[in-house]
Amino acid sequence: MALRIFATGGTFDKEYDEVKEVLYFGDTHLKQMLELGRSTLNVDLRTLMMIDSLYMTEQDRQMILESCEDAPEEEIVIIHGTGTMTNTARHLGEAGTSGSAVKDKTIVLTGAMVPYRFSDSDAIFNLGTAIAFAQVLHPGVYIAMNGRYFLWNNVQKNLNTGEFEEISGGQ
Q1: Looking at residues 129-139, what average pLDDT do you find?
Q2: Of 123, 127, 128, which is closest to residue 113 (Cα–Cα)?
Q3: β pairing state of 164-165 and 156-157
Q4: Which helix (H) or strand (E) holds 61?
Q5: Can you list the domains of the chain with their CATH numbers?
Q6: 169 contacts 106 by C-beta, under 8 angstroms
């Protein structure tokens, strides 16, 4: 059984240019992270885009949806920026409820508040938990951040704390 991971960018994969003093996108760090974690899973990595999620369009979200629909794997992790991760989760979740092929897949979106290349990054922890959740949760669309998972239609990013939380009642 294989797991598909789609990279779309976000803080997770940003690099820091010390000369220009800006964050930018290079290649995804996913292969390196899986090797560092000594993962033995059969994983198919694909880069769909490398953008800040604040600039993600509905066409970008549609491409993510179509890539998930076309993937032969039933377990999918999407690396995504945290700024609009809930928007993409909603796009995928709503498609699943209206008969899309994603309804039979377990899709987990995750990201990072601090880039992987920084020493205090949460990226590798979030990747590991997203992979684990993708393997054990029932088909559906979820967000996994900081050791927790949330259903696509019951999650928000708290802009005061930077943490993801449920919109209503317990999980």
Answers
A1: 97
A2: 123
A3: antiparallel
A4: helix 58-70
A5: 2-165 (3.40.50.1170)
A6: no
